[in-house]
Write a structure and sequence with these properties.
With about 475 residues, the protein is α/β, with parallel strands linked by helices. About 40% of the residues lie in helices and about 15% in strands. Helix 3 crosses helix 4 (about 65-75) and helix 5 packs across helix 11.
Length: about 475
């Protein structure tokens, strides 16, 4: 004698398979099957069983058979029955698992840093959830049916049109929707341009910059040539035989400061004379505090500059959206590299961002965060003035981080002291190009945007305790 039953999720919340086999009739077989289900953990404590009438119908047995089985298991303590609550697995009926299946106790994971002062990420708690959700809903309601098919490699026209207006108004970029190609961020743009063969090296880069970007370029077979920096930004006069240069002219990363106007003009003159190209990483272009807005270099010559931006700092790195504003001669090659379909940037997120920009929510969010980050910057400067007046903070007129200049030879010990204080941050040496001949600068790169508001004060206190004495 055997019977089986697969229970529906509507009745007890999860599927359950019972095999009624063995001697003693169906009542005894049902009792054995339910006991085994509890022992094995397939029926967890508190799980509600189906009414006996339903179970009897599913198994093809008499109602009294199921009722008697339930009653015996209640008497034994396997099940509980209460008026209005039905029959459930008893809370004390712990499953008996085979010893071989008991997981070994793993050592506790080491605790991470208590204070995150790394650069490059905004305050995650400040993401504009309500406004973003409103844009997402509007975008979803108004989306044409074609949106739910394969995406075009250029990106949604709604987003490219919104970016054309916004970048012209806020960053001085001169373009049109047909020259904007959507990507998932700056690193993705580099992979498309160099990994896809749109551009070739060697490429001049600033002597201090993100090592990750140099790794992306190296993986594409591109040799990077370091360009020295001074208080006016990259030394354009030191450009050699390279045909392209990568700059962060709005706010040099990580040392801070905009590219001097004379050098902005000089790099355009260099590109025209050599038939060269400027790659403009619009890093922190929207977050400025004590200086006038600095427009994009692209506005000086749209056919000599590739302007690259994203919302990873202004909105969130979780919104994987960026853009390339391309000279006309590179558009077709970039689209060919992306392929026939959009494989990276969510089409629904593109529509949401388009609405977010067009509705004015993006401008409002940037203005709000500009005030918040300026306050964070001011608190950092005040804490240094009170507890470490011998430490100077530079690059603080814009951006989301500051560089704390340290006495020569103290950077490594300061980074170690910060780690002992539970602080995550970077030393300036981590951003130095390995082939540069610039003098070594000791410093700490302190991001003041990442911590939540309530965590920022304790983070500053810990930071001041880790700085070297005068």
């Amino acid at each position: 004698m055997s019977a089986s039953w697969v229970n529906s999720a509507e009745r007890i919340g999860s599927d359950l398979h019972l095999e009624l086999t063995g001697p003693g009739g169906r009542r005894a077989a049902l009792i054995r099957a339910l006991r085994e289900a509890v022992r094995s953990g397939r029926l967890a404590p508190g799980t509600r069983l189906p009414p006996y009438r339903s179970l009897a119908a599913d198994l093809g047995v008499a109602r009294n058979t199921v009722a008697d089985a339930y009653a015996e298991l209640v008497a034994e303590g396997w099940l509980t029955a209460r008026q209005g609550s039905g029959t459930r697995v008893a809370e004390r009926a712990e499953p008996l698992r085979p010893a071989a299946r008991v997981p070994k106790k793993t050592p506790a994971r080491p605790r991470g840093p208590r204070h995150d002062l790394t650069q490059g990420t905004p305050d995650a708690s400040s993401f504009p959830r309500t406004a973003w959700l409103a844009s997402y809903r509007r975008a979803l309601q108004q989306a044409p049916n074609e949106v739910f098919g394969p995406g075009a490699p250029a990106g949604r026209p709604e987003l490219r049109e919104a970016l054309t207006e916004y970048l012209a108004r806020a960053r001085g970029v001169r373009t049109e929707p047909g020259r904007i190609v959507i990507c998932s961020g700056f690193a993705h743009a580099l992979r498309l341009l160099f990994g896809g063969g749109v551009l070739r090296g060697p490429l001049a880069v600033e002597a201090y910059g993100l090592g990750f970007h140099r790794e992306v370029l190296a993986a594409a077979g591109v040799r990077t040539v370091p360009l020295p920096l001074d208080e006016d930004g990259a030394r354009i006069d030191r450009l050699g035989r390279e045909r392209a240069v990568l700059l962060t002219p709005a706010h040099q990363f990580p040392t801070g400061g905009p590219l001097h106007p004379a050098r902005r003009a000089a790099v355009i003159d260099w590109a025209r004379a050599r038939d060269g190209l400027v790659l403009e990483d619009d890093y922190d272009g929207e977050f400025r505090y004590d200086r006038k807005p600095v427009g994009a270099v692209q506005g000086l010559d749209p056919e000599r500059v590739i302007h690259i931006g994203s919302v990873s700092k202004s909105l969130s790195p979780a919104v994987r959206l960026g853009w390339m504003v391309l000279p006309e001669r590179y558009v077709d090659a970039a689209l060919a590299t992306k392929g026939e379909r959009e494989a990276w940037a969510s089409v629904l997120d593109q529509l949401s961002l388009a609405d977010f920009i067009a509705s004015g929510s993006y401008d409002r969010h940037v203005r709000r965060m500009r005030l918040r980050y300026r306050s964070r910057r001011d608190r950092l400067v005040a804490a240094l003035a009170e507890h470490a007046p011998h430490i100077e903070a530079s690059g603080i007129a814009a951006g989301l981080h500051a560089v704390l200049r340290l006495p020569p030879g103290t950077e490594a010990s300061a980074v170690k002291a910060a780690a002992w204080q539970g602080i995550a941050l970077d030393g300036l040496a981590a951003f130095r190009h390995p082939e540069t001949d610039m003098p070594v600068r000791d410093g700490l790169v302190v991001g003041y945007a990442t911590p939540s508001e309530h965590a920022y004060g304790p983070a500053l206190e810990a930071l001041c305790g880790a700085l070297p004495p005068p």
